[in-house]
Amino acid sequence: MSQSITRQNFDEWMIPVYAPAPFIPVRAEGSTLWDQEGKEYIDFAGGIAVNALGHANPELRKALEAQAAKLWHTGNGYTNEPVLKLAKQLIDATFADRVFFCNSGAEANEAALKLARKYAHDNFGPQKSGIVAFKNAFHGRTLFTVSAGGQPAYSQDFAPLPPQISHAVYNDLASARALINDDTCAVIVEPMQGEGGVVPADPAFLQGLRELCDAHNAVLIFDEVQTGVGRTGSLYAYMHYGVTPDVLSTAKALGGGFPIGAILTTERFSKVMGVGTHGTTYGGNPLAGAVAGRVLELINTPETLQGVKARHHAFIEQLTALNDRLKLFKEIRGLGLLLGCVLNDEYAGKAKAISTLAAQEGVMVLIAGGNVVRFAPALNISEAEIAAGLERFARACSRFLAEGSS
């Protein structure tokens, strides 16, 4: 017997860790999506920077369907061709010599932090265990990664938390310098904070962290879960900044919607992780490897990466024109197609209200805290979809102002 599914069923059946929108998407193509009622939405959320090539991308479908007809899963007692090809693609495209595959950004950051601790313990002793992270960061929801993320609202209910993690102020090198010492095993940083408000790093800040890590034999970890795989207009944001980490975590866009994560590192650091030191049942399965391999082939091209930069300018130009008229935002910031519109002080805390109105007008946007409306659309979103989505967003912003900003 078939069953009719409604949004109310979420409230009845699911553990309530999310508060999803009142509509249920059922079909999508490119950057356009339709709900159960047939209403159309332009997708500027991109599955939180995941759907880098849009919905139902025909090339990714072909890759998935071809692999699905051959081999789905074997477990980590065996390897497979798609994941080995993907590893070589990532090595050839980046600073890395070695790759570890998992299923998500949180898992990738967990692996990166474990690697850093083990490298320090093996080479310098157990006292070298300190981790320096940054306030308002986000690195995942495991106990280790949520502790590294400098947002107490996400971690305080789960104490006691893993010890020896301290938090500096993002983009404040002096603050970081005060915490980094010879007992520091790792510094973990986002080249651009996503959940923390779409805040790009200052180049001198990242360069300074690189120098501090070198001086104190600490592992520099770049969390590129949200900024990676073309999001900033470079394949990875470290390339944009010209600062190379020791370990890089990647996920989200890597699978184009299929769950996969990874850490990239060099031979020097990878060799401390011997057989049995870490693992995952599903990580690097053939389905994920095949899809992610095709994602990289399509994104790591001059045409796609230049297209991200062109779309960035289109968004900035149109959002600036909107804001010149409505005076709603005090700053529009970001890199590539990860953008944040920061609300004026008089509208502080109202980003969620704007995103709700945007959905009513037929455009899906994100928030990054209470004060920032965030955009992370597909890297190949069309000019027509950008224009239509921003027209709908403008209507939502006008309604927000007309309805008393409530």
Going across the major beta sheet, what is the strand order? 4-12-11-10-7-5-6
CATH architectural designation of the largest domain: 3-Layer(aba) Sandwich
Q: Describe the global form.
A: globular
Q: What is the CATH homology-level superfamily of the largest domain? A: Type I PLP-dependent aspartate aminotransferase-like (Major domain)
Largest sheet: 7 strands, mixed
Rg calculated over all Cα atoms: 21 Å
CATH topology category name of the largest domain = Aspartate Aminotransferase, domain 2
Q: Please state the structural category.
A: alpha/beta
Number of strands: 17
Number of domains as seen in the coordinates: 2
CATH class of the largest domain: Alpha Beta
pLDDT average, as an integer?
96
Strand content: 15-25%
Helix count, per DSSP?
15
Q: For the terminal residues, how far apart are their CA atoms?
A: 43 Å
Poorly predicted ranges: none
Helix share, percent:
25-40%
Structure, described:
With 406 residues, this protein is of the alpha/beta class. The protein is built from 15 helices and 17 strands. The protein folds into two domains: 151 residues, Aspartate Aminotransferase, domain 1; 229 residues, Type I PLP-dependent aspartate aminotransferase-like (Major domain) (Aspartate Aminotransferase, domain 2, 3-Layer(aba) Sandwich), CATH 3.40.640.10. Helix content is 40%, strand content 18%. The strands form four sheets. Strands 4-12-11-10-7-5-6 form a seven-stranded mixed sheet, with helices on both faces. A four-stranded mixed sheet has the order 1-2-3-15. Strand 13 and strand 14 form a beta hairpin. The longest helix has 25 residues. The radius of gyration is 21 Å and the shape is globular. The model has no long low-confidence stretch (mean pLDDT 96). Pfam families: Aminotran_3. Pathway: Amino-acid biosynthesis; L-arginine biosynthesis; N(2)-acetyl-L-ornithine from L-glutamate: step 4/4; Amino-acid biosynthesis; L-lysine biosynthesis via DAP pathway; LL-2,6-diaminopimelate from (S)-tetrahydrodipicolinate (succinylase route): step 2/3. Its EC number is 2.6.1.11, 2.6.1.17. It is found in: Cytoplasm.
